[in-house]
Here is the input.
Amino acid sequence: MSDTPPSIPYGRLMHEAVCGVIREVLNRVASDGLPGEHHFFITFDTRHPDVGLADWLRERYPEEMMIVIQNWYDDLVVNQDGIAITLNFGDAPERLEIPFDAIATFVDPSVEFGWRFEQSDDEDGDDDPTPPFGGPDDSDDKTGDDGDSQTQEAEVVSLDTFRRNH
Here is the structure.
């Protein structure tokens, strides 16, 4: 019997909660379209075994890729595990399948909302005391839904923003 009491898996619980928010937002977009100026930058790990990606895109982005859901997208489907979407890459529509577990960042610059999932060596993240948020994405590969380079940045919201200093 172990002397160590079980710990609360805060990292995993936060990950699941934020995935629930992202799932709900994308479900609304799938049924009603993007409201107002809302648009999303989503960065994901292309090495994740459940990512569905054309071979030429996987070769171009062997580790991480950022997509933009804004002006042109088609057939957005959201389920419990992730999303499927068709995006246009320089007049070449491509279907992508992205599990929520592969998402590294989700940003809506129109309202300065963003979330960065911290990656852990521990697969289930139960022992990782680091909350799943952090600074903005530093990736140089920012590919939009039309294949053009994106330079717009958004602020990632941290819980520290809302804490009072005593």
Notes: Residues 58 and 69 are 19 Å apart (CA to CA). Confidence is low (pLDDT under 50) at residues 121-166. The beta strands are 40-45, 64-69, 73-78, 82-88, 93-99, 103-108, 113-116. Residues 10-32 form the longest helix (23 residues).
